[in-house]
């Protein structure tokens, strides 16, 4: 293939004039939007090459998720709607950082290494979020795809999970209709079907005694999730009465003091949503791939229901349905080190469902979840979904053709779930199906287990690349002196505090994260402080010592 320099810079319009180095991380490229135009053009080029390599539609999503409105980002999506394979992340980093003169050489190397031939016309499915910069970046990405003779399927302003769905359907029509309406229809219709057949479970045999409440406040983070929900809410109102706040129609600032990330990190109610005792709220993030719930009890106290609470609810439900349907499928949960220890203990000890631990970042969780017949995976921050193996799907389908209500419910639940990636809207509909089925109010759900007090803090160091971890990031191997010092702390001052702590470098920001969990809040505060100081002292902390 030929890469003429005027073509691969769009006659100089997309030149690399930057000193800045980009790195394709856990969430693709993510930084200040002003720095990204050439990167987006080049990701258009790369997406076209990936499409040629796979002879399939490839996805390109323009978003910076929960980051501030001034940021933006891009990530590529592989044919089945999954995150782009790790081996191409290095290609992405090389392409983004090449000088204009180097670029043709870098693209040639990719073509050779990946055995790409010119015979397939590239097809790239592009979506963008509501950020002001997304239009310009979209134009750059389209130009990149077209520069290599590729075709663009433009999804417009969509949630990240909708884009993943569109890519999957474009390559695998059995998954659903490849349009934005197809996604909406699939979720709406399956949800309504499930709500009508989800009778309260045996523990709550009388519908009259159900504590389930149909009223739900929706916090859209002032982003694209609110727009999508505005389309769906009227169509599901007979089963779920959603009131949309922070809806993304331009009245509030994206992700500012609202949305799933704000709610999880600050453990507080989102601004822009009326806070009245007894109310419950679901928050999604800026691109609607994460979801957390909150409620205010009758006494006015705030409660967070994070990704761990959602995961345990889903695992318990699936386990019960599998058993009722007489299906012996291997169900498992995948968490990260950030999962609250009480949630892990609940799933392991009470539900007797195996729990695996993966590194942070959904691609790692997704990969591990594939080892189960039905793999549930969730990050504590609310990003997660359920995936079904082919054999599990076939077994459920077959059982559903008999008159087993549980098997039919499982089959419908599988349709409601977006298996490609965590999907805030699909996940929240699933939560509502389960709560209604169980006849549960928020307190019932919350009572499954009680969170251990915990704290997540950050420390700035001169060079976070000196950190190395093992055991799903739960232990630090470099800097060498750090883990022994942490172990010493745990076996002395915190010996009887049921304490757990770990340190890992962020994959998305220039800092190191310290997580601490213990029996009491004061132990947690002290542990987080002591470990932060160890990091600062032993790993080149910069700025003020914690
Ligand atoms: C503790 C935490 O919430 N970490 C987040 C954050 O990763 P870091 O590598 O910790 O910066 O961003 C990731 C991408 O959105 C998300 O997958 C992950 O859960
Ligand atoms: Mg997100």
- Within CATH, the superfamily of the largest domain carries the name Alpha-D-Glucose-1,6-Bisphosphate, subunit A, domain 3
Bound molecules: 2-acetamido-2-deoxy-1-O-phosphono-alpha-D-glucopyranose, magnesium ion
Q: What distance separates the N and C termini?
A: 55 Å
Tell me the domain tally.
Answer: 4
What is the structural class? Answer: alpha/beta
Q: Radius of gyration, Cα only, in angstroms?
A: 24 Å
- Across the major sheet, the strand order is 1-3-2-4-5
**Oligomer classification:** single chain
- State the share of residues found in helices, binned by percent: 40-55%
Q: Note the beta-strand portion.
A: 15-25%
Can you name the CATH architecture of the largest domain? Answer: 3-Layer(aba) Sandwich
Notable characteristics:
Phosphoacetylglucosamine mutase, phosphoprotein, 18% strand, EC 5.4.2.3, 546 residues, five-stranded mixed beta sheet, 4 domains, magnesium, acetylation, alpha/beta, Alpha-D-Glucose-1,6-Bisphosphate, Chain A, domain 3, binds magnesium ion, 40% helix
Could you explain how this protein is built, in words?
The chain has 546 residues and is an alpha/beta fold. The protein folds into 4 domains: 5-175, Alpha-D-Glucose-1,6-Bisphosphate, Chain A, domain 3; 194-302, Alpha-D-Glucose-1,6-Bisphosphate, Chain A, domain 3; 307-426, Alpha-D-Glucose-1,6-Bisphosphate, subunit A, domain 3 (Alpha-D-Glucose-1,6-Bisphosphate, Chain A, domain 3, 3-Layer(aba) Sandwich); 454-538, Alpha-D-phosphohexomutase, C-terminal domain (TATA-Binding Protein, 2-Layer Sandwich), CATH 3.30.310.50. Helices cover 40% and strands 18% of the residues. The chain is built from 18 helices and 19 strands. It has helices at residues 5-8, 37-54, 86-97, 100-113, 134-147, 160-171, 180-197, 224-236, 259-266, 307-325, 341-350, 362-369, 390-400, 405-416, 424-438, 442-446, 482-491, 521-538; strands at 29-32, 57-62, 71-77, 123-128, 151-157, 215-219, 241-245, 280-284, 291-296, 302-305, 331-335, 355-357, 374-378, 384-388, 454-459, 468-470, 475-478, 500-505, 512-517. The strands form 5 sheets. Strands 1-3-2-4-5 form a 5-stranded mixed sheet, with helices on both faces. Helix 7 (180-197) packs across helix 8, helix 7 packs antiparallel against helix 14 and helix 17 (482-491) packs antiparallel against helix 18 (521-538). The longest helix has 19 residues, at 307-325. Bound molecules: 2-acetamido-2-deoxy-1-O-phosphono-alpha-D-glucopyranose and magnesium ion. The site of magnesium ion has 6 residues, from loops.
């Amino acid at each position: 293939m030929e890469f003429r320099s005027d073509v691969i810079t769009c006659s100089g319009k997309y030149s690399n004039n930057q000193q800045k180095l980009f790195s394709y991380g856990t969430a693709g490229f993510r930084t200040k939007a002003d720095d990204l135009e050439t990167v987006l053009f080049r990701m258009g080029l790369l997406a076209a090459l990936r499409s040629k390599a796979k002879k399939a539609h490839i996805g390109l999503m323009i978003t910076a998720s929960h980051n501030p409105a001034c940021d933006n980002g891009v990530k590529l999506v592989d044919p089945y709607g999954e995150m782009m394979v790790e081996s191409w992340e290095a290609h992405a980093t090389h392409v983004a950082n090449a000088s204009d003169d180097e670029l043709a050489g870098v693209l040639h190397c990719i073509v050779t290494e990946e055995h790409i031939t010119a015979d397939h016309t590239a097809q790239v499915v592009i979506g963008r979020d509501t950020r002001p910069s997304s239009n310009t970046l979209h134009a750059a990405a389209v130009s990149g795809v077209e520069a290599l003779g590729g075709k663009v399927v433009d999804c417009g302003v969509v949630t990240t999970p909708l884009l993943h769905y569109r890519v999957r359907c474009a390559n695998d029509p059995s998954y659903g209709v490849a349009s934005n309406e197809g996604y909406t229809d699939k979720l709406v219709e399956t949800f309504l079907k499930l709500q009508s057949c989800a009778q309260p479970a045996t523990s709550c045999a009388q519908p009259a005694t159900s504590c389930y409440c149909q009223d739900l406040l929706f916090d859209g983070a002032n982003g694209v999730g609110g727009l999508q929900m505005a389309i769906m809410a009227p169509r599901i109102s007979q089963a779920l009465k959603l009131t949309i706040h922070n809806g993304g129609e331009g009245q509030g600032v994206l992700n500012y003091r609202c949305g799933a990330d704000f709610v999880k990190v600050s453990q507080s109610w989102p601004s822009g949503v009326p806070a009245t005792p007894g109310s419950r709220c679901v928050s999604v993030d800026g691109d609607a791939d994460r979801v957390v719930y909150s409620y205010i009890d009758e006494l006015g106290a705030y409660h967070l229901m994070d990704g761990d609470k959602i995961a345990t609810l889903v695992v318990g439900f699936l386990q019960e349905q599998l058993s009722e349907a007489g299906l012996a499928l291997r169900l498992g949960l995948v968490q990260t080190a950030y999962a609250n220890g009480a949630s892990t203990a609940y799933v392991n000890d009470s539900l007797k469902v195996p729990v695996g631990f993966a590194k942070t970042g959904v691609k790692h969780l997704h990969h591990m979840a594939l080892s189960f017949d039905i793999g549930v995976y969730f990050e504590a921050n609310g990003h997660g979904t359920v995936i079904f193996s082919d054999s599990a799907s076939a077994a459920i389908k077959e059982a559903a053709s008999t008159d087993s209500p549980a098997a039919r419910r499982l089959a419908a639940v599988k349709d409601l779930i977006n298996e490609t990636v965590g999907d805030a809207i699909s996940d929240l509909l699933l939560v509502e199906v389960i709560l209604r089925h169980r006849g549960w109010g928020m307190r019932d759900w919350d009572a499954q287990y009680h969170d251990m007090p915990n704290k997540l803090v950050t420390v700035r160091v001169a060079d976070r690349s000196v950190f190395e971890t093992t055991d799903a990031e739960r232990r630090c191997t470099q800097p060498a002196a750090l883990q022994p010092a942490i172990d010493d702390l745990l076996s002395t001052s915190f010996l009887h505090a049921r304490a757990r702590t770990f340190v890992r470098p962020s994959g998305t920001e220039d800092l190191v994260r310290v997580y601490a969990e213990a029996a009491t809040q004061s132990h947690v505060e002290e542990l987080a402080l002591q470990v932060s100081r160890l990091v600062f002292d032993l790993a080149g902390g910069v700025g003020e010592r914690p």
